[in-house]
Amino acid sequence: MKGKIRVGIGGWAYEPWRGTFYPKGLAQKGELEYASRRLTSIEINGTYYGTQKAESFARWREETPEGFVFALKGPRFATNRRILAEAGSSIERFFASGVMHLKEKLGPVNWQFLPTKQHDPADFEAFLKLLPKSIEGRRVRHAVEVRHDSFRTGEFVDLLRAYGIGIVLTDKDGFPHIPDVTSSFVYARLQRSSEDEENGYPVDAFDVWAKRAFAWSRGSVPNDIESLTAPEKKPPNSRDVFIYFINGFKPKAPAAAMALIESFSNPAVSGAG
Questions:
Q1: According to the CATH classification, is domain 5-270 in 3.20.20.410?
Q2: What pLDDT digit, counting tens, does each position of 55-78 carry?
């Protein structure tokens, strides 16, 4: 058994992609439809900065194909605060804003914290308790993206496992690297795309990430990444995997995502050969 692996980018409206990723002359209103036929997921960043219209979520769902999934950034009003235990009203407003109009296309919510936010175990646990497990009968999955080294501890990993919350894995220099699996899914944000590489990353890097994605999707962990803690006592038979190419040299992000998707068809990578 294996879970579903989805690969994408952050957002879809970006001028340097016009005429490179998007064909010349494509109307901006057609960009989401175009991108969603070449990628399998998109992380929406606008929800971090402000409330989106309910009708926008409904329209995005309609414009994308079956099986496509959106990840959402949780609002900064919930995470950029001194006392996280007081974020309840911001979290409630976010989910009441129309997010659930995505229905089956709602993927994980990424709650991103500033690099200055340090780990306060009691307050962080209070925040995790505020995250709803389901809304309107639909499961809601959560991941946290922390950027301070104080979070790089076994205690933090154990806390996330206790609540079934994912940890965002990044390859960005200067951010804490926490590869431990803590939930029913894996969420990776890759941020090292280079202008010097045709598809943003070296060719062999896509096979490396594809192998890791297959391992995670089958309920195991990659053998080339060293975790902070021991593996889960009872890992699931499968996990969903979400991988996004974010920033770095951003104009290369769509090419990197499509190159990784192509790597999945390599029998040497999938284990089928």
A1: yes
A2: 999 999 999 999 999 999 999 999
